[in-house]
Design goal:
The protein is of the alpha+beta class. It has nine helices and ten strands. It has helices at residues 7-12, 48-54, 60-67, 72-77, 80-85, 92-100, 192-200, 208-220, 232-252; strands at 33-36, 39-43, 103-107, 114-117, 122-124, 127-128, 135-142, 148-153, 164-171, 176-182. The strands form three sheets. The chain has a five-stranded antiparallel sheet with strand order 1-2-7-3-4, covered by helices on one side. Strands 8-9-10 form a three-stranded antiparallel sheet. Strands 5-6 form a two-stranded antiparallel ribbon. Helix 2 (48-54) packs across helix 3 (60-67), helix 3 (60-67) runs antiparallel to helix 6 (92-100) and helix 8 (208-220) packs across helix 9 (232-252). The chain is globular and about 55 Å long.
C-alpha cells in the first residue's frame, strides 16, 4: 500500500484479507516525476496533490480530474496508481489518463518492464491488469498539445465516485482529438467512432449540432450497468450530455 486511502477502506469493509501488508512509501525509486521527451513520467507514489501543484501546466487534463477527487486531505495521500490497482472503472484520473494516451509501467523481479495502455488497465470492477508478483512503477503521460475538458456527474463534485465522467482532449496540430469515458462500463471506454468524428468534423466542431452528435457517439460506445447511483438509461443520457459539455468547453479554448 502507498497512501492507504483505498486499501484501508477495503480492509475495513472486509473486501481484503491479506496476510501481509507492505508499505511502499519508503521506496525512493517510486517517487517524483521526470520529463521524458514529450511526456511526463510520474512515479507510482505520485499523489493527486503532486499533479495539481507540479504538473497542472503540462498535464491539464489530469489536473482537472484531480481537482474533482475527494477532499484536499485525501488528495494529499491518495496516489493515482492506487485507484488503478484497486480496479475502479469510475476513476476520474482514469478518464484523463485514457484520453491522454497514457501508459502504465509494470515490473516483476527478473523480467523486463512492460507497458499497459492506461484506459485498459482496469479490466473489470475490482480487477486490473497486474499479474502475480507485479508492481506498478510509473505512469507515462503525454504532455497536452491542445485544450482539454473534463465533465463529471455525481452526487457531489468531489467526495463521491462519478456516476459518469468524460474527458476530451483536442490536438490542433493533428486536427483531431481523443476522449475517454468512465463510470459507464466495467472498464474505461475510448469511443473510437466519436474520436474519428472529431477528426472528420474538425472544422465544424463549434456547431452545437456537432457537439450533440459527438455526445450520441460517446453514449453509443458505453455499456452501463444500473446500480444505486443510476439506471442504465440515466447513465446513457448522462454520458451523452457530459461528452457534449466537455467538447463544447474544449472547442471554446481553441
Amino acid at each position: 500500500m502507498a497512501g492507504g486511502t483505498g486499501v484501508l477502506v477495503e480492509l475495513n469493509r472486509g473486501a481484503l484479507r491479506p496476510d501481509t501488508l507492505i508499505d511502499l512509501s519508503a521506496c525512493a525509486e517510486l517517487r517524483g516525476a521526470r520529463p521524458e521527451g514529450d511526456t511526463v513520467v510520474l512515479g507510482a507514489l505520485s499523489t493527486y496533490t503532486d499533479v495539481l501543484e507540479r504538473h497542472g501546466a503540462t498535464l491539464p487534463g489530469l489536473a482537472q480530474a484531480a481537482r474533482t477527487v475527494a477532499s484536499r486531505q485525501i488528495r494529499n495521500r491518495a496516489t493515482l496508481v492506487g485507484a488503478l490497482v484497486l480496479g475502479d472503472p469510475s476513476g476520474d484520473a482514469l478518464a484523463a489518463l485514457g484520453a491522454a494516451g497514457a501508459t502504465v509501467q509494470v515490473a516483476r523481479a527478473g523480467e523486463p518492464v512492460r507497458s499497459v495502455d492506461a484506459h485498459a488497465f482496469v479490466t473489470a470492477p475490482g480487477a486490473c491488469a497486474l499479474g502475480p508478483g507485479e508492481l506498478v512503477v510509473s505512469i507515462t503521460v503525454p504532455v497536452a498539445d491542445g485544450p482539454v475538458a473534463y465533465a463529471k456527474a455525481g452526487a457531489r463534485n468531489a467526495m463521491a465516485r462519478a456516476v459518469a465522467g468524460v474527458m476530451v482532449a483536442l490536438h490542433p496540430a493533428a486536427r483531431g482529438g481523443s476522449a475517454c469515458a468512465v463510470g459507464v462500463a466495467p472498464t474505461a471506454i475510448r469511443p473510437e467512432r466519436a474520436e474519428a468524428f472529431l477528426a472528420d468534423e474538425w472544422d465544424r466542431l463549434a456547431d452545437p449540432d456537432a457537439a450533440r452528435r459527438f455526445g450520441a457517439l460517446v453514449a453509443g460506445a458505453t455499456d452501463p450497468s444500473p446500480d444505486a447511483r443510476g439506471s442504465r438509461a440515466y447513465r446513457l443520457h448522462v454520458s451523452s450530455v457530459l461528452a457534449r459539455r466537455a467538447l463544447t468547453r474544449a472547442v471554446a479554448a481553441l
